[in-house]
Amino acid sequence: MRPLIQRLGYLVVDAIDPHAAARDTVNIVGARIVEECPDSVALSSNQRHAELIIRKGTANALVRCGLEATSAAAVEQVRANCEAAGLRILSTEPSLPGIEAAVTFATSEGHVFEVHTPMSADRPARYHGPGAHPRALDHVNFTAVDPRAWADEMQAACGLLLSERTTGYELAWLRAADGRHHTVAVVKSHSPGIHHMSWEFPSFDDFKNLADALIPDARKLTWGPGRHGAGDNLFLYFADSADFLIECVAEMEVIDDEAAPVRISAAGENLSNWRVVNQWGALPPTEWVEHHSPLAALAEDRAA
Ligand SMILES: [Fe+2]
């Protein structure tokens, strides 16, 4: 079955200081602010109306992930799939302006997804500002207590394809219709949340500017640069001021074949198999392995 999702849509997070987190996204990642008010900041790195919305909250937490549907009919199909799979449907009203049709559902662990028709692309493609200017918000890696159940639910609801998983289902990577190795991924953790969000860059050369942008504030990279085994992508990680783990990627593998068999990789105990985790050899530090940002309370999301 062709996935009902084309690619990642947008991300909404809460931050105790949304303006500080937005400044990081501008100064280090290179996206730009497209709307700002006292209680929220919207950012985009391309023509999309908004890719990352950071709201003022009582905790640094994940609110909602938007997934761009392949069509309006696909949105309706996701709604039917959620009902058939017994997943909670939270809304059928678009949450943001510029979206025509949407359905919002929650996984059994409480991750909230809005599957939506494409957001309007009404921002200029070129813009001023520091940073390397990413192409787009690329993928999100979530945490779940039961990654296998999470992956099963996302396949059942959205028709996402399982590209790869580890032998014990500690990690799983799912792709959308654009064929990129993963648009959403999941890693086993003590509670549901987000492990990292990822911005795509045109070139490895951009990573130098990214890392240099941490120097003025005496901050350091969390992990990388390196090349993951799953996805074959170049990577670099740092934590922003709200302690969200931010990945910067380039050269993500594209799997053209929708019927490609699921890869099963052995990540080793505590991600110790460097050939799967980082083909360049350096294993992730503890702060990367244990990183976790929680889910925002669902009531706060629904009031948004
Ligand atoms: Fe990633």
Automatic annotation (TrEMBL):
PROSITE patterns in the cross-refs: VOC
Q: Which domain of life is it from?
A: Bacteria
Domain VOC positions: 136-251
Q: What is the protein name for this chain? A: Oxidoreductase
Species the sequence originates in: Brevibacterium rongguiense
Q: What is the lineage of its organism?
A: Bacteria, Bacillati, Actinomycetota, Actinomycetes, Micrococcales
